[in-house]
Q: What sequence folds into this?
């Protein structure tokens, strides 16, 4: 809901006006709610950005594990929702496999069933390099 603040040039009071849509704001003629004057100057006001509880947690300097106390680890749907929200908060594309696992969690499949259906990764295969190229941690260079 768009909210705009004004200073009335007649009575010098601050006026806050709310509109249901931006189109309504475009058509409106702002009037002072105190004295009825249309002689208003628009003020620059703070911008509020709504964040989910997880979003606030992820952007907090004092992150602690107690924020996850309400997470029911036995509820795959809740786990899937949390993972999807975390993914959205980071803005990173985590790939098709991640999306598949989250979709399955949100449908209520247990994490154990999902894990058992995934292909095994041999223990001696290094994780992909964050730099790309698929050459392991050091790009194939010897120490």
A:
């Amino acid at each position: 809901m768009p909210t705009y603040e004004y200073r009335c040039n007649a009575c010098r009071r601050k006026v806050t006006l709310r509109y249901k849509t931006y189109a309504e704001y475009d058509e409106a003629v702002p009037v002072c709610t105190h004295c009825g004057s249309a002689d208003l100057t628009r003020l620059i006001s703070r911008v509020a950005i709504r964040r989910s509880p997880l979003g606030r947690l992820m952007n907090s300097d004092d992150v602690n594990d107690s924020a996850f106390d309400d997470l029911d680890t036995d509820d795959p749907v809740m786990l899937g929702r949390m993972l999807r929200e975390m993914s959205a908060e980071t803005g990173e594309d985590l790939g098709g496999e991640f999306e598949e696992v989250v979709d399955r969690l949100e449908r209520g499949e247990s994490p154990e069933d999902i894990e058992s259906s995934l292909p095994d990764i041999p223990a001696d295969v290094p994780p992909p390099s964050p730099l790309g190229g698929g050459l392991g941690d050091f790009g194939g260079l010897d120490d």
